[in-house]
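Dear colleague,

Following up on yesterday's call, I've attached the two folding results inline so they're easy to grep. Please treat them as preliminary; we haven't cross-checked anything against experimental data yet. The first protein's sequence and C-alpha cells come first.
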Amino acid sequence: MTAFDIDHDGYLGVNEQLLGHVRTFGDIIENLNTALKNIPEAARGQATPIWLEAQTNWNRIYGEMQQKLNANTLSSINVHEIFRDGDRTGAQIMLS
C-alpha cells in the first residue's frame, strides 16, 4: 500500500514548535514552583501564616495549569493524527 501523509499547511511543524514551547514553559513554571516552595524557609518561618493560603492556591492552580497545558498539547497532536488517518482512508478508497 502507498504511504499517504499530507502535512496540512505545516501543521506537524506547528505541533513540534508547540511541544518545544510547552517544555520551555514547563521548565519555567517548575523553577518558579521550586522557588515558591522555599519562601517559608527563606523567611525563617515568619511568612508561614501569611504565605500558607497563597501557597495552597498556587499549588492548586499550578496543578490545573500543568494538566490543561498537557491535555491541550495532546489534543493538537491528535488533530494531526486524525487528518493523517483520514488521508490514508481517502487514499485507500481512491486506490480500491
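Below is the second protein, in the same order (sequence, then structure):
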Amino acid sequence: MTSGRGCTDMVDSKEASPQHNWVADRFLISAHDISVLYGSSPGLALQEVLYFELEDAKSQCDATLSILNSQSAPDRCCNAGILFAAALVATVASALEPTAYTASGKAIYTTPSGSRIVKHGGNINLYAPNGTLLHVFENADGSDGGGGPLRRQSTSVAGQIFAPLPVGTNVNDTLQSFNGTFVVPPPPTTFESQLMFFGFGYTDLTDTGAVYSFTGVALQYGGTNVQGGSFYSGAIFAEIPVLDSYILASLPNSTEQLNVGDTVSVYVAFQGILGGILGIDDPFYAYFAGFSGPNSDQFPILQSYDEDKPQIVGWRVEVEGVEQSSDYPTGPLVFKDVTVELTTGFPSELNWEIEGGSAVDIDFEVVNGDPTDVEIKMTFPDAS
C-alpha cells in the first residue's frame, strides 16, 4: 500500500498477524480488529481474515490517511485497528462513574475491549473503541501535589520486580516488545473475596520520577461485583496510583476465565510513533497490551498512547483482602521465556530490582535476568 491510497485494497489470505502487521504489502483485517473498531466481536477466530467492506470504517480509515501520509509508514492507517480518527472530533460522553471499588476503596472503571488511553500532560483520557471520549482522569501525574517517587507507591502494591529500560535519547529509541508465558498456578484453598493482580507490563514516570501509570496484562484471582470471582481470569488494565484508580478492559460475553495448568502467553507490543492525535503535534508512543495464542480472542485488549516512552518494565503484584496464607495460590507462579527488546535490539543486560515482597511474605526471585530469556518466580506463603 502506498502513500495516498485508500483502505479498500484487499488480499484474500488465510493468515493475519495477531499484532496487525501488513502482509504482502496489502491490507488484512481480523475479527479482532473489527472488535477494536466497534466494541463487539463477530465471534470469529483471531486469525480469520475478513474483507474490510464496512463503509463506515472505511471512511474513518481514509480520513486517517491525511494524518498518516506525513509519516514514514502511512500503512499504519489500519495496522493498529484504525487510529480512531473519530477521536479527533470525538463526542464527549458524560464522565464515567466507577463500576466497583476494591476493599481499600480504589475505584475500578470498566471500559470495552479495544479502548484507548491517551496520556497527555497531567491527564489521562479514556476513549471508547469508536472514538468517544469516556472520561478524563485529571492530575493523574500528581501535578496537584499528589504522587511520589517510584519507591513510595501505594501500600496496596504487595511487591514488584522491575528494571529501568536503557533507552537512548533518540526519539525512536524505545521499548519494542515485552513478551512472556506463565502457567496458571494451583488456586488458594480459601476464598474470602480477596482480589489479586499479578501484573506484567510497563511503567510511565513523570519528570519528577513519580509513577504516572502502569499498563499491562495480569493474571487475576478474585473479583468485584462486575467481573471475576473465585477463579483465575485474564485481565488487561491500567493503574493510576496517584488517583487510586484502575481502568479495566472487558469483553462482552466472556468471563476471561483461566484454568489451573493453562499455559498463557502475554505481550506488550510497540505499534509505532504517531503524530496528530487529538490535534497535538507531539509524537505519541503507541502500544498494545494483550494475550496471544489460540484463545486470545476470548480476552480483551487495551491500547495506550503515551507522550513519553516507557521507562520501566516488570511485574507488579496488587493484593486486596488477603487475611491468611491460604488466601494465596498454593503453588509458585513462574514467568518464563520472557524477552525484553528495544527498537535498537536486545540490551546487553538489565538491572532487575525487587521490592515490597517481604511485607506480605511473597518471595520474588529473578531466576535469569538475561533480556533474551528472562525468568522470574513468585513463591507464596506455604506454596511448595
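For the second protein, one point worth flagging: Residues 1-83 form one domain.

Best wishes,
A.L.
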